[in-house]
Amino acid sequence: MIKSKLSTVFFTVVVAVSSACAQQSGMETKPDVPKSSEHGEVQERFPSFSNFTFPHYCFAPGGEPFVLVEGHHVDEVGGGEMRLSRVKYADVTGDGEEEALVVLAISTGGTSHPYCVFIFAANPADPGRPELLWTFESGDRANSGLRQVYGENGQLVVERYIPKGKNGDCCPKFFKREVYTFSNGKFTPSHDSKHENPDKTAVLVP
Fold it and tell me: Model's pTM, two decimal places?
């Protein structure tokens, strides 16, 4: 079932947007370059996520693990790919310790740009095996695509593009800012708000 789900995600056909919209967006299909954190002392508390065994796909909780090698993973059945996009470190649980926010880009072979987000807490007893707190899958660009994920005031902030007023899938006019609080071992929605997209394109903000 996991392989079937992965194949479905990788080969979902997304209707191409107009060439004018594509030119306006300036987007490229190549993956984002992994961005390292300036917090060297935090990195030492975590493994290298470029070469790491993830417990399961973000869209298949409880499923089989998969491995990134040099920041890259290929589905042997479906042929789709996942690449390490970026890693950020921030306190998103309110405990004063920074967690790792790991973003993987899913390559569908088409124009779709979904992402998998994994949030890990450090494991002092075994730095090579951080604790997975949450994982989720974003939509595609203007349709709940990921804009940014970060920590603020000990809370998790996820920004997703919304389709209202979009000029094609490439060019969302607004995004939603969702704030989550960590309590009793899970992230719970606190509040959200709508904002105008200053870029007018569906880019993943650094």
Answer: 0.79
- Tokens at residue 90, please? 């921030």
Cα–Cα distances (Å) from 198 to 37, 174, 175, 202, in that order, read 25, 8, 10, 10
The two three-digit tokens of residue 118, written as one number: 């994994």
Nearest partner of 122 among 66, 8, 32, 41, judged by Cα: 41
Q: Do 38 and 92 contact (CB within 8 A), yes or no?
A: no
Tokens of 95: 């405990």
On whether the CB atoms of residues 89 and 99 are closer than 8 A, the answer is yes
One digit per residue, pLDDT tens: the chain, 206 residues? 333 444 444 333 333 333 333 333 333 333 333 334 444 457 789 999 999 999 998 888 888 899 999 999 987 666 678 999 999 999 999 999 999 999 999 887 777 889 999 999 999 999 999 999 999 999 999 999 999 999 999 999 999 999 998 989 999 999 999 999 999 999 999 999 999 999 889 999 98
Structure tokens at 156: 């998790």
DSSP 58-77: TTSTTS--EEEBTTEEE-TT
| Tokens standing for residue 182 | 């960590």
Which residues on neighbouring strands pair with residue 100, listed in sequence order?
Answer: 89, 120
Torsion sign across C-alpha atoms 5, 140, 38, 33: positive
Tokens 């002092």 sit at which residue? 124
